[in-house]
Amino acid sequence: MALEKPSGLTVASLRTILKVTGGVTSRVFIMIKSLAIDAIHSGEERITDEAVATWRPTWNKHAWTVPLETAVEAE
Predict the structure, then answer these.
(1) Contact yes or no for 46/39 (Cβ under 8 A)
(2) How far apart are CA 10 and CA 15, in angstroms?
(3) Is the sign of the CA dihedral 47, 48, 51, 52 positive or negative?
(4) Banded pLDDT at 70 (limits 50, 70, 90)
(5) 50-64 pLDDT, tens per residue?
(6) Which entry of 10, 19, 50, 75 is 20 to 30 Å from 31 by CA?
């Protein structure tokens, strides 16, 4: 799935993705795919730092423990 605009995520957002997913590859893919779908639905056509910071799993089977403090807030 390709988005029309480049996302250009910051290092802080990449750290947030790793922290939220625990670095588990399948979770990273689930999160990125979900963020991409949200970007398409919103018309943004790119994954933003704000979207990463506020993302939460939408399905119970993907609702692993999401840390309340993200890497973005910690810096």
Answers:
(1) yes
(2) 9
(3) positive
(4) very low
(5) 999 999 877 666 565
(6) 75
pLDDT tens-place string over residues 2-54: 889 989 899 999 999 999 888 999 889 999 999 999 999 999 999 999 999 99
Where are the strands (E) in the chain, listed by range?
none
Tell me the two tokens of residue 38: 């949200």
- Cβ atoms of residues 66 and 20 within 8 Å: yes
Token reading at 39: 């970007």
How is residue 13 annotated by DSSP?
H
Q: How many helices (H) and strands (E) does the chain have?
A: 4, 0
Sequence letter at residue 24: V
Residue among 11, 15, 6, 13 nearest 45 (CA) = 6
